[in-house]
Amino acid sequence: MPRLAVIADDLTGANATGILFGKRGFRAISSLGGAQCGLPGDPDVIVVTTESRAIPPTEAYRRVYQAAKDLLGLGVQHFDKRIDSTLRGNMGAEIDALLQALREQGTDAMAVVVAAFPGSGRSTVGGYHLVGGVPLELTGVANDPTCPIRSSSLPYLLSAQSRNSVGVISLSTVLRGSRAVADALRVLYSDGNRVIAVNCVADADLETIAHGAAQCGLPVVSADPGPFGAALAAALFPSPRPTSGRVLAVAGSVTAQTREQLKVLQSSIPCTSVHVNAEALARGGNLAAAEADRALESVTDSAANTPVLCLHTVSDSEDVLDIGALAAELGAAPATVACNIADGLAQIAVASLAEMGRSGVGVYGTGGDIIAALCRACRAQGIELIDEVLPLATYGRLVGGQYSGLPLVTKGGLVGGPDAALACVDYLINSLEERA
Question: What pLDDT band is residue 302 in, cutting at 50, 70 and 90?
Answer without folding.
Answer: low
